[in-house]
Design a protein that fits this description.
575 residues; 3 domains; AAA+_ATPase; globular; 20 strands; P-loop_NTPase; alpha/beta; 19 helices; SLFN_3-like_DNA/RNA_helicase; GIY-YIG domain-containing protein; seven-stranded mixed β-sheet; Rossmann fold
Length: 575
Amino acid sequence: MTSFRIERGPFAATQIDAWSQLDPRFRNWPVVYALDGDDRIYVGESLNVATRFRQHLATADKRHLKGARVVLDPTFNKSVCLDLEAFLIQRLSGDGTYQVMNRNVGIADRDYFGREDYQKVFSEIFDQLRQDGLFSKTLPEIENSDLFKLSPFKALTSDQEIVVLDIVEGLLADIEADSASQIVVQGDPGTGKTVVAVYLMKLLSDLKNWDPSQQVESESPLSEFFVEGYPELVRDLRIGFVVPQMSLRKTIQRVFKRTPGLDSRMVTSAFEMGNHPDHFDLLIVDEAHRLRQSGNQPAGPLYKMFSDINLKLFGQDDPALTQLDWVRAKSTRQIFLMDAAQSVHTGDVPGSALADLIARSDAQHRRYRLTTQMRVRAGEDYVGYVRAVLSDSAPEPRTFADYDVRFFDDMAAMRSAIRARNAEVGLARLVAGFAWPWRSKRDKTAYDIEIDGVRMRWNATDVDWVSSPTSLDEVGVIHTVQGYDLNYAGVIIGPDLRYDADRSRLVFDRTNYFDPTAANNMPRRGITFSDDEILGLVANIYAVLLTRGMLGTYVYVSDRPLRQHLRRFFESGRP
């Protein structure tokens, strides 16, 4: 039986006095509250909400808020309230109706007695607050949205929190010593590299704008930076966030636009960063393995822009220069988040440049690794398993508890299964490598992919495809899904990847590879890519796609020998 109630009223001293007389729990009981204005909202928890409200009324940034809601429950304790506070902040950020005014330093993921039962109550509280107009979307709609998944209000895992703490400590020491530095954060798919990058941007912004008159109440060790001395170090810093992939960049810009203290203009491409008139004190680079070298640009004008930036930054157009060099030239300090095994294009910075980047960070003892798997329910073993399957040293077949892996011989059956999962939990999509020409880009009536009599089109948009209204009827190419989460991924392994049974090895089929520039040679640099070199990139592509699904992965293989080879690795015995 529900024991909570929500009190509503104006955010005013008279209302606070009335509530305090009505119920002593407004003066001495753990509660959670929300204060909202025209387009902003603040969520908090307190043991004395009456006093806390009076403190908020005395501050310039909150006295303009108009409405107050207080969630009271006789069974609440401090741990429950901290959890509910984080739950509401995260969902409000993902909903997008209001801009969330909170700092992210207090968001934590701590277990406590009875948590599973309380979180069921949180859903009921959400429903009542949605009826009040604080939310516009349902809970599943919010939790499947990119605004939620890439929110700066995520609760960090233990290893993420340790990495962030070490990075901020080292960064502040570097600034105080006026020294340059370079940090590398590595992690497999699903370990939250982008989450850490976005979190750092919000944390540093909050620190820059911290008002010493406002106490930071948090059990997080990150709250120790919100004391006199540290904010002054970062107050005048110019910080930029470089995201090489257009689709992911546009999504993060939307997140920043909805977050006080952040600005969509902070998020740039490498080309925009290279052309920026100012020098940066700090550049955070997400998906650094997708930075580019001078050949194989995705569009013609970018060849000239690449040369122009080289000339501006270095006084010469040396073809060996890469966007990694631009980042170093344009900033005093850098944080690179990367996974070299997710390079999927010959135009990506070469592996030797990434190895050098790692070696430099090792020399400064500034390399960190994320290990906790946040995306795939099967756990971190699944990522290594998939990468091994797509190599010439295949592992022993295995299954993964609580993870839905299925192998299909019929394309129509897999598409039907993906549609069924989408109806159940949402965010189930078909994805593929670039193994078919993109006819529909010029002819909207044309189909791009035909398998077993099933005709399909590539993604109609390059930006935020997974959330677009037509995405369920389309197939997402690698460049639209790298960096995103799905609940279920239906992976089509196309004829660009084949299996040579006589040699017991994977092979690349260049005749069925249609990424316009990804297999091009670089004559200016005297580089010719062999089929074996591109095979490694194609294997990376399918490893990325096979690790997108949080709840499950469905697999269809075009090449019959490869189908027979891979079947045993992805058959789980499920119907």
